[in-house]
Amino acid sequence: MSSNYPSPGTSLDDIVTFAEVARRGSLRQAGERLHLTTGAVSRRLDALEQRLGVRLLHRTTRSVSLTTAGSEYLADVLPAVEAISIASQRLSEHEGALSGEIRISLPVNYGRLHIAPCLPEFLNLHPNVSLDAVFNDSFSDIVGDGFDLAIRIGHLEDSRLVARRIATDQRIIAASPEYLDVHGIPRHPTDLLHHDCLHYTHFRGSQRWIFRKDGEQLSIPINGRFRANYGHALTLAAEQGLGIVQSSRAIIFDALKAGNLCEILTDWVLPEIGVYAVTPSRNGMPLRVQVLIDFLSQRLPDA
Fold first, then answer.
1. What stretch of H or E contains 195?
2. Distance, CA of 212 to CA of 233 (rounded, Å)
């Protein structure tokens, strides 16, 4: 089979379908995105492979993966597919109301507390826009997983992405009254060396908590019997006396108000953590995504 492409007669719809299948790793999910049946998706893929004379995908009943030729072809055609899609979207948006879907990745707790309550208002303001919101604390592959936008908290390392700081997450230290009664109240950050500290493993880097006061900065290595990649689990553990937790004030506000947790080391400040809107590219960003970012930047708390 020849690997020379593109081929005369190749359908743009077929290429778009192939790109969507490659992005989703599923014929069914690609069909849902494109409003096609799985059978229609399969026929488009068959037609494209026949025209090109090369197999692009390994397909089984359970999985879909790119062949070597398929990976090369996707890299060649994806920029053009995205450019055409964005051009069409921008034209329709400038001609009238915002329209189309935004696929957004959100951190679980912050998204639940701060972003989810805002989304109905945004949808009411823009009735022709739809949202596909995925709540996940993992740092997903924005491009590979087909996200238009991700909200991320903390240090960003992927230089290929474009990030805009839209809010600030204020951090505090807290423990239950029962824990403090048994183990004592830390009066200085170095006292944490002798306490069980509950660590959030999605904070990248070493297990250290940073404290600042009057120009002084301390980096305290912390240890404890419980670590987790889900902040709510750490909050529950702290409420039950398992240790000292570092968390967003907003996330543990109810526990503080109820007296289940007590803020400690209040004369020291923890570094503020940025909340970022992250997109694959600034160039060609759909207008509806830009409008959503502007909307969230006006609604989210800034410490």
1. none
2. 27
Residues 147, 153, 155, 156: what is their CA dihedral angle, to the nearest 10 degrees? 10
* pLDDT at site 284: 64
Please state, in angstroms and rounded to a whole number, the distance separating the CA atoms of residues 100 and 196. 49
Mean pLDDT of 195-199: 93
5-14, 195-204, 241-250, 269-278: the lowest-pLDDT one = 5-14
Ordered alpha helix ranges (H), the chain = 12-24, 27-34, 38-52, 68-95, 108-110, 119-125, 177-183, 231-239, 253-258, 287-299
Which positions ≥6 away from 25 have C-beta within 8 Å? 63, 64, 65
Long-range contacts from 123-129, C-beta under 8 angstroms, 24+ separation: 125/295, 126/97, 126/98, 126/288, 126/291, 127/97, 128/97, 128/98, 128/99, 128/100, 129/98, 129/99, 129/100, 129/101, 129/102, 129/288
**Neighbouring-strand partners of residue 213:** 216
